[in-house]
Fold this protein.
Amino acid sequence: MSALPMAGAKSATVTPPSVSRTRALAFVQRSLWSLASVGIFVGIWEFCWWQGIADPLMLPPPHMFLANLPEQFRFFDPAGARSLEEEGGGFLSVLVVMGWTSLRVVLGLTLGFVGAVGVGLAIRYFPVFGKLTLPTLTLLTPISPVAWLPVAIFIFGIGNLPAIFLVFISVFFIIVLSTLSQIDAVPAPYMHVARIMGATKHQLFRHVILPTILPSLFVTLRLNLFAAWMVVLIAEAVGVGSGLGQIVMMARNTFNASLVFFTMTLIGLLGFAFDRGLLWVQNRVLWWVGPSAVGGK
Amino acid sequence: MSMTRPMISLHKVRKVWNPDTPKALTAIDGLSFDVAPGEFVVLLGPSGCGKSSLLYMVAGLEMPTEGELECDSLPITGPGTDRGMIFQEASLYPWLTIAENVTFGLKLQGVFPEKRQRIARDLLLKVGLADAATKRPDELSGGMRQRAALARALAMRPKVLMMDEPFAALDIQTRAKMQGHLLEVWRASGASVLLVTHSIDEALALADRIVVFTSRPGRIKEIVHVELPRPRSPRDPRCIELQLRLADLLADEVDRAFAEQEASI
């Protein structure tokens, strides 16, 4: 009786060579399109420079700001990396600066995600807590993280903390509200099944609600990743004194357009890598939501 | 059957949704009947007649507005592991393997993993899913998922098994297979079954007794005994006779339900 459906199920788990080849082909195709997309963008830019429309002082084309890398590296002063003594320069210090910025983003995102999901669960678990906190949380949600910048500096001073705090703020409120709407959208049969089997309130939250909502909350986190990246750069420019944001600001102040665009390139690549990284975690750890439900692979 | 103590007993049960509001809706009114231990009772009626509401009340997920429900002579005040339930959608948890799904209730009770594993193996063998233990729900067909849900309900050794249109989402061939499977499992378990359906054929294939509901508010229109040996052939003249009778009973109610729906628009 199970012969037919079993055959169907097997083909879903075991990947025949032809399937992996099709996948590889699709990957190559995607990469070529990406290359073409970036290529056209760069091409137009270079063309504008060649025609004299783009002033190389203000809009230096990629071949200029990517040409003299050691010259660019000189400005990457890992002042935030207190373990290193060098006064900038070299590929390593670029990596260290990128690492510090990434670390601030990772810490802020992690704290924001864990804290927000925890608060969201608590709001639904303890109704009184929910009634007391939810109105305030809803009022605070629309406030731009940038508006929190002075507050962050007042509280934490200059350093890493205000940047981490801003990243935290940029995801926290949104994920709290998202947690609530996800909890309310847990399919009724999921709850019924557990209740019929005698689940306590704690067990319902731990074994049914949390695993049900985590994948979509992770998608929310991914969607807000770029917002977090924007915020950390602002925080670094104003309240940290190191990191990629500080370099962009310093480049602006010294009218070094080349450095501005070089750093912007790094920021774009890092943000992209982060998005891919989160997607990987999502597909590995939270595998039970298919790609169709989470918006693209 | 009148000699034995009923497993489930309903007395003048009434359920009103959104009571004391303009949207108040009486789903069930004045419903009384008993289910004997080991009896297979099918609740048959048009959609929206409150059959499922009744099931949810027996499960303890909903409380009646009036009337009494008892299971094994004890009033029903909430869900209990003596009453298992299977839903239209298998509602297996997608983050657990089939074996973990089957023993989910045992895990909640704190049963040790080794014992859970053994029980899962036995049950999956019983429902014909021995190879599927480590698979995920989305790797199984609809029929296999429902069998896993059946195994999950059996894991709690319920005295009553409730099923809310369990085969409605399956194709006809799979459905017939599943019905045969259910009868086997039911006989082996000795549990009472309360199954909701709107399919006359399904009711005739399975039931000892068919409780025919009126359209909303759900009342008992008639109780039909099916004293035919299983497996029953739909071509059996006695079966055809019952089928026609049930169709007549239902037709009135479906017409009424339709008229009501149209009037409310």
